Fold this protein.
Amino acid sequence: MEQHDATAAAVTPEQVGLSFLTLAHTLREQVDRHMTATAGLSLSRTKVLQALAAHGALHQAELATVLGQAPRSVTQILEGLERLGMVSRTSHAEDRRRKSVDLTDVGRTALAAAEEAGTGALRRFFGTLTAEQLTDLTGLLTRVETVSEGGDTG
């Protein structure tokens, strides 16, 4: 027990933070690869479809805002999704440069498959934890998230 205490005392917030960032990056890549291989949709494309499913048809600029991404990045993703028949884009009647984007039935089906693949990958990683460990991890992540959002730092 003393050795565990000594090891724990030697760990710094910076070390834990770097480990967390590395792990988060690795998990995101693995989930993305699994979703792409299993369902044919990357995580970024899935997020676009999820936003449309949650909000309904949106103008491209609104969609970019919802996703917190640059409009140009969203346009590139939408072009690929449109080619696959997963979204439809229509020009605004008065401003033809302004496009409205909507999810198609093909997109809904692909989204369901991608979400199932993503859920499976996450279960593989976090399903090894006990209920108590999941609760502890959730509490710790919530604490870090609160600080990251400018909340309680004490």
